[in-house]
Design goal:
Layout (H helix, E strand, L loop, with lengths): L4 E4 L5 E4 L2 E3 L4 H12 L5 E2 H9 L7 H16 L7 E4 L2 E4 L7 H17 L3 H12 L13 H27 L3 H14 L4 H13 L3 H19 L5 H12 L35 H13 L7 E6 L6 H12 L7 E5 L6 H18 L11 H12 L5 E7 L16 E6 L4 H7 L2 E4 L5 H12 L1 H6 L1 H11 L3 H13 L5 H8 L25 H7 L25 H15 L10
Parallel strand pairs: 7-10, 7-11, 8-9, 9-10
Antiparallel strand pairs: 1-2, 2-3, 4-6, 5-6
């Protein structure tokens, strides 16, 4: 096998020599290379190559141009001019090993997936089809001119779509209806006349308890088929429609657990709900997406350390990124909070507990979970060896907490969030360090606008600027002040700023109520928070409404400030209400 040279046509035409990308030349030179690659092992005449690149409008110089392109390709490919491209009977023959072309690897992977699916191994089939889809980097032969490239682009587009359909069929077959419905909706929007996609979407929606949406999808596709093609839906699609209308269609759930050489193979989906509006993290998300694409089944397990200051949004980003990357990991996602801020003994106990939870999530009966942490870790790694999984480990304090929890086998990925850098992890495991920076001013403004509404932020632009400056790009500080503003719609933002951000050196000092300890980056335990709080009971003896205001935040005496803070704590706890600012 000529492993030192690899070719790619599933996207732009690319040529990699010993892992380093080399230029394949101008578009028409790429067209000549593509024509030879698709006919590798067979001679291609000069006239055929001219027709492939120019069609019927070939200029008189076309033959000379093809010879020049071939000469340049030979120089790029090898010092031995005829090692790859040989002159045969006035034409050219490209000799490569089948695995050197990504299209061949794609077809081989899809064939293996079909064998697995036919034998009932849906999880393995889904994993292989996901790997095949990840080989694509855009439309086939992107930017390559000529009638040959145009024809092949259409043919390969159909192959890619068929692969995507089979991948989604595996998801539906395993009972992953909610996840499948989201992807199938997008796929049907791109290919509205594709009846198999419509049938899969209807099945997924019905399985997710969304019968009306399933029937609506059928109606849209049926109308399009009649209007654009003058035909009725296929008998298969009509049969799915009738089953849904009956309301008695029983979808099999037996494939959610599948035997794989042990008792059961469960597919956990433990990621918490993602925030509906995450801003300012597109660059980091794209970086993780690229890395996940590179994490093939033959690669070592990938580990990413997501670090940053308190309140910067590490957990929110990890969860959002995990949900975005979930399709790359068909065997499921695991999540655990390691409580990195607690005492050492608690952290050690937490690691043991997380391993036990993970083992049971993967189908190990509670009575079969080993006693020691080391034994649990070894069993966990053995189970991961058969799977392609995403593991999110939140709030790690040090590398000791991670022993046994990080995947060691190829194909899986771990996202670790931490306030520290965990340099040992980067050094020992070649983990990818990803430090979340503070939000930009534009991102912070987008966040506040989304939470408070355009009218409220545009009414006080200078105050919004002040809030953004005080928060210093920390999402948690912005979220906290936004939450207070949402609960007090009658209070101008300027008044809130005076109350909660009294000076520039206290940007995060906006956490005053007992329930806010979970949002406070400086807090580690609610019990210590309660212990430090002075008693305020005497202030809340039965009384009538307070008839006036408690002094302004900047001019109040120390005793008035204490009363103000106590009142605000009670407002936040829902014990009293504020009818006007102050």
């Amino acid at each position: 096998m000529c492993s030192d040279v690899q070719f790619s046509v599933l996207g732009p035409v690319r040529l990699l020599k010993q892992g380093v990308e080399k230029t394949a030349g101008q578009p028409r030179q790429c067209a000549v290379l593509a024509a030879l690659l698709f006919r590798a092992g067979r001679p291609v005449s000069l006239s055929t190559l001219v027709g492939d690149v120019w069609g019927e409008e070939a200029p008189p110089s076309a033959l000379g141009s093809v010879r020049t392109y071939v000469y340049r390709l030979r120089q790029v490919l090898s010092e031995q001019s005829d090692r790859f491209i040989r002159l045969v009977n006035g034409g050219y023959l490209l000799h490569i090993e089948p695995d050197a072309l990504d299209l061949n690897r794609f077809k081989q992977t899809v064939a293996k997936a079909r064998e697995a699916r036919s034998s009932g191994a849906l999880t393995l089939a889904e994993r292989l089809l996901s790997k095949a889809l990840d080989m694509w980097h855009g439309d086939a032969l992107t930017g390559v001119p000529g009638p040959f490239a145009s024809t092949q682009r259409s043919v390969l587009g159909d192959l890619r779509l068929a692969c995507a359909e089979e991948y989604m069929a595996c998801q539906v077959g395993r009972g992953c209806y909610v996840e499948a419905a989201a992807e199938l909706s997008t796929l049907l929007a791109e290919h509205p006349l594709r009846e198999r996609v419509c049938g899969l979407l209807m099945t997924a929606l019905y399985g997710a308890g969304r019968q009306a949406e399933a029937l609506a999808a059928y109606q849209r596709t049926s109308n399009l088929l009649r209007q654009q093609l003058g035909i009725n839906p296929s008998p298969e699609l009509q049969q799915i429609h009738k089953r849904i209308l009956s309301g008695r269609w029983q979808l099999s759930q037996s494939t959610i657990r599948r035997s794989v050489g042990r008792t059961t193979h469960q597919v956990p989906a433990q990621l918490p709900a993602a925030l509906p509006h995450l801003v300012g993290r597109d660059k980091e998300q794209e970086q993780l997406e690229r890395w996940a694409h590179e994490t093939e089944a033959s690669s070592p397990a990938a580990i990413c350390v997501i670090s940053g200051v308190a309140g910067i949004g590490k957990t929110a980003f990890a969860v959002s990124a995990g949900r975005h990357l979930a399709r790359h990991f068909p065997d499921g996602q695991l999540f655990a909070d390691l409580h990195g801020g607690g005492p050492e003994s608690e952290r050690r106990d937490r690691t043991e507990g997380v391993l036990a939870d993970f083992l049971q999530s993967l189908g190990v009966p509670p009575e079969s979970v080993p006693e020691t942490t080391r034994a649990r870790g070894l069993l966990f790694q053995g189970l991961l060896a058969r799977r392609r999984m995403l593991i999110v480990l939140d709030n790690a304090q040090n590398t000791d907490q991670l022993k046994g929890l990080l995947p060691q086998s190829p194909g899986s990925m771990a996202l670790v969030t931490t306030r520290t850098q965990l340099r040992a992890l980067v050094a020992a495991y070649q983990a990818l360090p990803l430090t979340l920076p503070p939000l930009t001013r534009d991102a912070a403004r987008s966040f506040l606008t989304h939470r408070l509404g355009t009218s409220r932020t545009e009414a006080e632009p200078e105050t919004v600027d002040g809030i953004i400056q005080s928060a210093r790009g920390v999402p948690l500080a912005l979220a906290n002040i936004a939450a207070r503003a949402i609960y007090r719609p009658q209070v101008p933002l300027a008044s809130l700023t005076d109350e909660y951000i009294p000076s520039e050196d206290k940007a995060l000092d906006t956490f005053n109520s007992e329930e806010d300890w979970v949002l406070n980056p400086s807090a580690s335990d609610p019990r210590s928070h309660r212990q430090q709080k002075p008693s305020t009971a005497p202030l809340f003896q039965p009384q009538r409404a307070w008839p006036g205001a408690v002094g302004a935040a900047n001019s109040a005496t120390p005793s008035q400030q204490r009363v103000r803070q106590t009142l605000l704590r009670r407002i936040h706890a829902g014990l009293i209400s504020e009818v006007a600012a102050g």
